[in-house]
Design brief:
It contains three helices and four strands. It has about 90 residues and is of the alpha+beta class. It has a four-stranded mixed β-sheet, with helices on one face.
Length: about 90
């Protein structure tokens, strides 16, 4: 499983998201990548007002705030073979 967190430096919500992901990763193994939206103009344009954004296996899943329990539940669903639900602001 792959989890990416789109964030930027000096973002307290982003720091909290990374801490939550690390805590959950202690119980459920997954690959974690932290990606700064400042390094790519397209990412900055897409996510600037919604960071942190948590993407699980290429599906945007959480934006702004989420809990450890919510992330763990979603990852367990993915582990069990269920598809990842997109976050509310994602079309399709």
């Amino acid at each position: 499983m792959r989890v990416e967190i789109y964030s930027k430096p000096k973002c307290s919500l982003c720091d909290k998201a990374a801490d939550i992901a690390e805590a959950v990763r202690a119980r459920i193994p997954f690959e974690l990548r932290l990606i700064s939206i400042l390094e790519d103009p397209a990412l900055l344009e897409r996510w600037r007002y919604e960071i942190p954004v948590v993407v699980i296996n290429d599906v945007p899943t959480f934006t702004l705030r989420f809990t450890e329990a919510e992330l763990e539940a979603r990852l367990r669903e993915v582990q069990g073979g269920m598809s990842v639900a997109k976050c509310d602001d994602q079309s399709g």
